[in-house]
Amino acid sequence: MSITTRSIISLASLSLLLAACGEKDDTRNLSRLDAELTTNTSDPALAEALEGPIASDPNLKGQSNRDAVRPSDKPLNGAVPAKLNPKQARAEALKLAGGKLMQTPMATKSVTATKQPLTLGEKAARDEQAEKCGTPQVRYAMDWAGRMPAAFPVYPGAHVTEAAGVDKTGTCGLRAVSFNTAIPANEVMDFYYTMARRAGYDAEHLEENGMDVLGGTHEKSGGAYYVSVKPAQGGGTAVDLIVNGGR
To answer: Running DSSP on this structure, what letter comes out for residue 193?
Structure first.
């Protein structure tokens, strides 16, 4: 199965994470999951979360997740390379990807969302609740960016703008991060597509509100990932990445 965006986590991310913790069906794809979940009238809150975009909320104002905390001033660990120029960033990404990048397939679907955005904490909390992993405790802290699974690191040299996570084991754990990079969107997509496929995840490419979205699941582990990519204000690329599991 596979994936869909907004500004940090979206419809597709929830679809994927739900699929990762629910029944496994090799015939299910992202488009089908989107259709099933967005027409789930038995759970209005879930339907709203699925249809709603995400907004960055660094000040944590007006959020429904009472367990969220403010970002810490702790520096990122070595898992997130700092201040690399584009040439260095590309070289590091190529190294992480095994020396060669695969080309991301063309988008299989284009969708448009009109709902008001949710904050990162709100979206992550709803994702976690949907997975039935207990009451989530979403924590905002920049060091979550250094605790991404090895298959889905922050792009080398990127500037992290927001990060959050749920500190649980297995697929009940959650890592979410927003970052900007000077690398073009298509190269970022190719990097994450390559990383996902080489780690045993499936992948689907969608377009949503003019943004590119990539996502999929891992059949054996039940893991899931979601990446949204769009042009950043002032140049470069803005990326939102969410995945269950992590360090």
So the answer is: H
Distances in Å between the Cα of 81 and the Cα atoms of 74, 155, 167, 197 are 15, 8, 23, 23
For residues 28 and 111, the model is more confident at 111
One-letter identity of residue 33: L
* 92 Cβ neighbours under 8 A, 6+ residues apart: 81, 84, 156, 157
**Tens of pLDDT, residues 27-78:** 344 444 334 333 333 334 333 433 444 444 444 333 333 333 333 334 334 3
First to last CA, the chain: 24
pTM over 0.70, yes/no: no
Distance (Å) of CA 216 to CA 64, 66, 120, 160, 236: 28, 30, 20, 23, 25
Phi, psi of 226 (to 5 degrees): -150, 130
What is the share, in percent, of the chain residues with pLDDT greater than 90?
Answer: 36
Parallel, antiparallel or unpaired: strands 237-244 and 54-55: unpaired
| β-bridge pairing 204-208 and 109-111 | parallel
Q: Which amino acid is at 172?
A: C
DSSP letters, 210-233, are TEEEEEEEBTTT--EEEEEEEEPT
The one-letter code for the residue type at 46 is L
